[in-house]
Specification:
7 strands, alpha/beta, 313 residues
Length: 313
Amino acid sequence: MFQKIADYSERQYRSLTGLSKEKFEELLPIFKECEEKMKEQHYQIYEQNYERKPSAGGSPIFKKSEEQLFFTLFYLKTYPTFDVLGFTFGCSGKTAHQNLYKFLPVLELALESLDCLPKRSFESVEEFIEFMSKHQDLLIDATERLHHRKKDQEEQKKYYTKKSKTHVVKNTIIATPAQMVLFVGHTVLGAIHDFALFKAEFPPEFAWFLLFNIWVDLGYIGFSKNYYTAQLHIPFKRPYKTKENPEPQLDPVKKEHNRKVSQKRVKVENAIGGIKRLAILQYRFRNKSQDLRDDVIFFAAGIWNFFKGFSFS
């Protein structure tokens, strides 16, 4: 199978890795360099702790960097169980599990070297403004991912969202009109409201958005009361149905405003759709690792930025 990786068609590369063949080959030497760098660091730490060189160990299943990168992207793109993953690559489920957690940090380092990874948090307003300074318009939204249902009823409530009527986790996303993902908030449980999550990440007492045009949906009602912006673009909400107004409608001016906001704001939806090309973000998340649950959307955003040719440098 590995001898044929280079012979896969463009369609197979995209369906199995989420990258084009050209992008896979562009990422490969960076991945190889990072893998060697991390291996050398491991050897140095081992020698310091044990005062001897590590043993050679057995023959690895994935000998070449292209095999390691393909294996890692294949898991993220298709999200099989570890038993199925191991069967596909000719090893046990346990071996597949161990190798995945070995290669994921290498992929993260490679994407970091390419300066494609979005921010997760900001230490200060000044850092935020400096990072976002190239972008006048910021599109903000939250995205949900299905999560396995907890056995404990109290735990279930923390994941349950009335909006989707299911158990989810969610993240705040900030993107540009060009669909570049600038910020991916840390993963939180689904019961937290989108705007409450946003205010926890960007405390309203600071002037985060004073210099930017902000585009949001109706999930962020109250944004203007909490934050100062250069200009806020949010749709008008349709009036409530009453006896006096049984069929409430917006007037033509407000409808036109909503249409323009929607045309611009849909780009953040497109960016989220690009992130979610990886099946690990589409299917119900079944892994037990909370770190992986948070990391995968971060990696997916970096892969999307890389795929689109975006870089922060």
